[in-house]
Amino acid sequence: MIALFRLFESWIDPFRPLPSEAMPKGGVAFLLFFLKQARWPFFLMLIVGSLTAFVEVTLFNFLGHIVDLLDSSDRETFFAEHGWTLFGMAFFVLVVRAATNTLMALLEEQTIVPGFFNLVRWQAHQQVMRQSIAFFQDDLAGRLSQKVLQSGMSAGDFMVNLLQVAWFIVVYAVTTLVLVADLDWRLGAIVAVWLVLFAITARVFVPRVRKAAKDTANAYSGVSGRLVDTYSNIQSVKLFGSLKEENRGSRSAFIRFIGQLKTFTRLLTSIRVVMSLVNGAMIVAIAGMALVIWRDGGISTGHVAFTLSLILRLNILLNRLFNQLNGLFRNFGTVQDSMETIVKPVAVQDEDNAPALTVDQGAVEFKNITFHYGKAGGVIEDLSLAIAPGERVGVVGPSGAGKTTLTSLLLRFYDVEAGQILIDGQNIRSVKQETLRRAIGMVTQDPSLLHRSIRENILYGRPEASEDELRDAAERAHALEFIENLEDKSGRKGFDAYAGERGVKLSGGQRQRIAIARVLLKNAPILVLDEATSALDSEVEAAIQENLQQLMAGKTVIAIAHRLSTIAALDRLIVMDGGQIVQEGTHNSLLTNEDGLYAQLWRRQSGGFLQAGLQTDERVNSSVS
């Protein structure tokens, strides 16, 4: 049996690569995109569903036949006369029915649920991972993960219910219509009217159910996203005493969800009431007509039993079908809601057959670049900057000057709207993004760590590094001592201890030292430091600066800092303001221009604020005295 399980479980590979064709928009096209990748299991499910419906109808035919045999046979000779007939019926029930049910169970539970459900989830995840940084900045992480995970379950449930339940009932209904009409056309006519009324009811309610299901799924995602956002930022919530405000916002999200859910459930109740009336009228009509035809000698007692059994079963199945239709379109609405997020166009894409970036020297050039974040103006306008191989360049300026945007464009988190960015003469838009980012090591002001072990976080830039290289990088980043003393709540220690979500279990300085160790280990030819030591105390910063100087040797460096003292010794300083380069030169040359922006910033950081504070204190003291 285990071998049979494994056979069906291996039919669909859940980690099948995402096809090269674009993931389509539209709920039906989205489903077909995945269905084509698992067509044969679903085709077999279609066949087995038809056989199962035929088997179920045959059972009621057996029942009618047995009633006729009982009505016309002698009790003492009943088994002697009809033993083989009864044996054939028993064989059919025990073997054929069991075989079709077993095959359907294997297809659903061993092939579709673990295979198809996770194929959809995995490829939806792959599609989302292709998206640019802006995609993730514009949405909530909890909402995105919810849509990726629910897309697989909803798409799988939709297809299973469509083929296993809806298709089964359609085949059953058509077979019932044919068999009953064969007994008497009047019975067939009533069944036909019943099916037409069912179709009309479905036509009226299904579009409304589909829209309500989609709106409900969207509102549910909003609740999920709101809660994840609150839990992820619980420190800020506690710090500002904003519990009431957060509960008010969460309550609003719940109220919207509950309102949509009420609209949806009202439709479901209306459907049940209408179907109860229609089905009740049809059962009475068919039962009455069958009895009239029996009285007139048109059909036998067994035929009456057969007809009434079929009809009562059909009533149950049609009610079930409507319930399944509700589930079908609830799932379809969820798929549509997920699809609208997952299938958004990817803003930053590799060109077809893009080559890998090769960095021999590390020259970087920003050539007449313009970038507005898609707005009418602002940020960076027609900026040009050439950085020689191995040159160490500091970028300074007031907040909002465009410093971090410049490095984001170099990493191709966004595409420039005009101009080019070249590395060793290669346009970064023409090479693979993955190889571009492999060539750049970066430490940010607020480094983000994964909720994994410290070892995994440091090795993230170079997974193949040895244990000695790992420890050396941690020691050079002055992180080894505190790492060896770490222990998480699960008892994992040292490099095996988990950092917590986004590194929340570590202090800001510890997170930054882990990030520095990571970039030391990566050892990329181009280095970007965005306030890389801002979270460190002066003693640790001074110790790390020495190792950073060693790391910078032979590399092209772009360092952003608000504390000018940390970059004053670099080869060249670029001063930005309003998306433009307004000054450039060495630290000493820039200080000679006393009216320049750099000199103003330097004076403020070299005692300007302190001096202003002393003058204020003097004025206060003199007024008091």
Automatic annotation (TrEMBL):
* A cellular component annotation (GO) from this entry: plasma membrane
- Transmembrane ranges? 42-64, 84-107, 158-181, 187-206, 273-294
To which protein family does this belong?
Belongs to the ABC transporter superfamily.
The primary location reported for this protein is membrane
* Record PROSITE patterns: ABC_TM1F, ABC_TRANSPORTER_1, ABC_TRANSPORTER_2
Q: What does this protein do?
A: Part of an ABC transporter complex. Transmembrane domains (TMD) form a pore in the inner membrane and the ATP-binding domain (NBD) is responsible for energy generation.
Output this protein's name.
Answer: ABC-type multidrug transport system, ATPase and permease component
Its membrane topology: Multi-pass membrane protein
Give the matching SUPFAM superfamilies.
ABC transporter transmembrane region, P-loop containing nucleoside triphosphate hydrolases
Q: Which UniProt keywords apply?
A: ATP-binding, Membrane, Nucleotide-binding, Transmembrane, Transmembrane helix
Domain (ABC transporter) spans: 364-603
Where it sits in the cell: the answer is: Cell membrane
Record lineage? Bacteria, Pseudomonadati, Pseudomonadota, Alphaproteobacteria, Hyphomicrobiales
Checking InterPro entries in the record gives: AAA+_ATPase, ABC1_TM_dom, ABC1_TM_sf, ABC_transporter-like_ATP-bd, ABC_transporter-like_CS, P-loop_NTPase, Type_1_exporter
